Amino acid sequence: MALRLFVVVIVLLLLSMVPHLPKWRRLEWFDQWVGHLSDSSGAARVLVCVLPPLAACALIAFILSRTPYLAVLWVVFAAAVLAYSFGPRELEADIDAVLAAPDAASRHDAAQALRPGIDDEPLPMLAPAWVEATVVSALWRRFGVLFWFLLAGPTGAIGYRLVQLLAAGQPATRLDAATRAAARRTLEVLDWLPSHLMVFAMALVSDFDAVVQAWRAWHREPGRAARPFEAGFLGAVARAGVDADVEAGDGYAEDTSDPAGELTDTRHLLTRVLMVWLAVTALLVLADWII
Question: What pTM did the predictor assign?
Answer without folding.
Answer: 0.91
